[in-house]
Specification:
Layout: H1 2-18, H2 29-45, H3 57-62, H4 81-98, H5 108-112, E1 117-127, E2 129-130, E3 144-145, E4 150-161, E5 167-170, E6 177-182, E7 188-189, E8 203-206, E9 211-221, E10 229-234, E11 239-243
Antiparallel strand pairs: 1-4, 2-3, 4-9, 5-8, 6-7, 6-10, 10-11
């Protein structure tokens, strides 16, 4: 019976749409949608198999359809800068590991780069003149006196020729400047002298396995008590401080 009503209702709607004459009225698109929706709802109302539970269409409208991921994603251009940076860092680490600071020279001959000779600290003298005047002053090629209120500090070194033959030692050619520091005070430049045994300008022959005495001279206030004593050697490229006592 319900199915018959549905059929008759559908026929009635069709007749209403067609009218009495053969001319079909022209409807707007909105009017067609309203009539179609009404007819569908009317048919579904009497359908046993229709689930009448309401559905919140707003929730469905709010759900944004998820576009399927492309099976063949675009190939990403590799960032070539990252490998280069890592390579640079690794190269830097290798360079840093190989360029460790070389240990400072621990002796005079090592700083000068002199082979076959050994320099040994031999103490100091505090005097008013150097070298000490002898009975025959002509023997002293050059002598120096301290200025008033000062004393000469003579820092002495024994230089040993370790070669099996007589060898020439020339310290002047190295151009090394010598400074002496007393009691941890600022170091003073060794005086430039014409002494034949000046450490900075010596040029002479030392016998095989023999030795000679060289000296560095500075002035200090009279009455100075020497405690700590150190020597600074300085070239155009290097500098080292050696503790003497």
């Amino acid at each position: 019976m319900k199915r018959l009503d549905i059929i008759l209702c559908s026929i009635g709607i069709a007749c209403a749409l067609s009218g009495c004459g053969q001319t079909v009225p022209v409807l707007t698109e909105e009017e067609n949608e309203i009539i179609t929706e009404y007819a569908v709802n009317l048919l579904l109302k009497y359908d046993k198999n229709y689930n009448s539970h309401l559905v919140d269409l707003s929730e469905l409208e709010e759900e944004t359809p998820v576009e399927p991921e492309s099976e063949t994603p675009d190939e990403e251009v590799p960032d070539e800068s990252l490998p280069e940076e890592s390579e640079k860092e690794s190269d830097t680490e290798i360079i840093d590991a190989t360029q460790e600071e070389e240990p400072e020279a621990s002796s005079i001959e090592e700083f000068y780069g002199i082979e076959g000779f050994s320099f040994q600290y031999a103490g100091y003298d505090l005097v008013s003149e150097y070298p000490t005047m002898t009975e025959e002053p002509a023997e002293a090629f050059f002598a120096m006196e301290a200025t008033p209120g000062m004393q000469l500090l003579i820092v002495k070194f024994h230089v040993i020729n370790q070669n099996g033959t007589d060898s020439v030692l020339d310290t002047f050619q190295y151009g090394v400047k010598v400074k002496i520091a007393v009691n941890d005070e600022n170091p003073k430049n060794a005086l430039s002298t014409m002494l034949l045994n000046d450490l900075q300008s010596f040029n002479g022959t030392v016998e095989a396995y023999g030795q000679t005495e060289l000296a560095a001279v500075i002035e200090v206030p009279a009455g100075t008590s020497v405690g700590n004593l150190s020597m600074v050697l300085k070239s155009d490229t290097d500098r080292v401080t050696l503790a003497l006592q």
